[in-house]
Each structure stands twice: as structure tokens, then as C-alpha cells.
Amino acid sequence: MYFDADSPVLHRIVDDLADKGWSQQDAFLPDALIAQLATECRARDAAGKLAAAAIGRGEGQAVREGIRGDRIQWIEPGQSAACDLYLGALDALRLQINRALFLGLEDFEGHFALYPPGAFYQKHLDRFRDDDRRAISAVLYLNHDWPVTQGGELRMYFADERTLDLSPLASRLVVFLSGEFPHEVLPASHDRLSLTGWFRRRGDALL
Ligand code: OGA
Ligand code: MN
């Protein structure tokens, strides 16, 4: 387990969420664990486990490459030691957010994502029209040796019309309120690997 409740990085994320609704933390997890997660992402892809990502939920779900071109696989507890350490770290963050901000985050869902060269994800919000349980988004990047010239930035859009481009650097974690920040993924010249997930509130989904 990497974090206890008093871990400074968890406090920084909670403070940022309270102040401005989003947070960026570099070196969130040890390099060796990030390397294991990247290897696992590539192995799952080589085994054909990553599939074209769909947009939306339920009957409205469709694969539309014009909107997002990544391949994903949802992760479950017990699949690998590395994934369990990642899930443990995110659960420590969930508990710290609940303790400090009373958001009542009930669970976490996350997937590996691989964007092949040229793939992107158009500007969007991480909320489904028919399901607003997603409260907070958390993206962890797995790309060692990623010069800025390779592209693949996460572009964040702020209410004052500013934008910010963040490179998908190994062990960088970006956390934001899912319903507040439109964002997009810019195309890259190399495979772009990440673990993307959402903390969800109790389900009063309208399904
Ligand atoms: C997403 C997403 C951002 C990123 O999967 O919804 O916006 O930087 N990902 O990978
Ligand atoms: Mn998103």
C-alpha cells in the first residue's frame, strides 16, 4: 500500500479539488510500478484484450472513431499485483476525498487505454446524459521517455476560456470534477498509454 490517510500527495489533491476543481500531480506512483503497468497494458493489447472504446451507455452506446480512437480494457481487482496496487492507491484517494469534501464517492471504475499514433478523443465532458454518477475523473499516464514533440496532450478547458495542455508523462496523475471541465486528447505520433478512471457517487441513475 502506497498511501495512508496522512499522505501529503493525497492532501494536495484534496486541497486543489476544493480550491479549483482539478489537480495535477507528477510522480504519483513509483517508477517501477508505472513501468509494470505500461508493460501490462501492452501485453493486454498484444493479446487482443483491448477493444475500440465506445461512447455513451446502454442502447446509445456506439463505437465512433471520429470521436475517440483509443482501445480500452476495464480492470478488475485480482487481475495483477500492479493493477491491485493502482486500485489501492486510487481507493486511498477516494477515502481521503470523502473524508475532506463529503462527496460520498462510493466506488471506482477504471480502464487501460491505448491511443495508437494519430488517435484522439474530441472535446467532451465525462458524464453520460443518462447516468450522472461519475463525479471525479482521474487519469494516470504510463509513458516513459515522452518528448513534448510527440504530442498526445490532454487539453483542459476552463470556464474563463483559458486552456492548458498537459503531456501524458509517466506517473503524472490528473484529477478533475467530471461534470465541470471539458477536455480532449490530442493526437500523438507514438502509442499513448494511460489508466483512466472515475469515482462514482451512489446510483440514482435514470436508467
Ligand atoms: C477519457 C479521457 C483523457 C486522457 O478517457 O474520458 O478524457 O488524457 N481521457 O487520456
Ligand atoms: Mn474524458
TrEMBL record:
PROSITE patterns: FE2OG_OXY. It comes from Pseudomonas denitrificans. The keyword Signal does not apply. Keywords: Dioxygenase, Iron, Metal-binding, Oxidoreductase, Vitamin C. GO terms for biological process: cellular response to hypoxia. Residues 96-201 form the Fe2OG dioxygenase domain. The keyword Cell membrane does not apply. One of its GO terms (molecular function) is L-ascorbic acid binding. This is 2OG-Fe(II) oxygenase. It comes from the Bacteria. Its cofactor is L-ascorbate. Transmembrane segments: none annotated. InterPro entries: HIF_prolyl_hydroxylases, Oxoglu/Fe-dep_dioxygenase_dom, Pro_4_hyd_alph, Pro_4_hyd_alph_FE2OG_OXY.
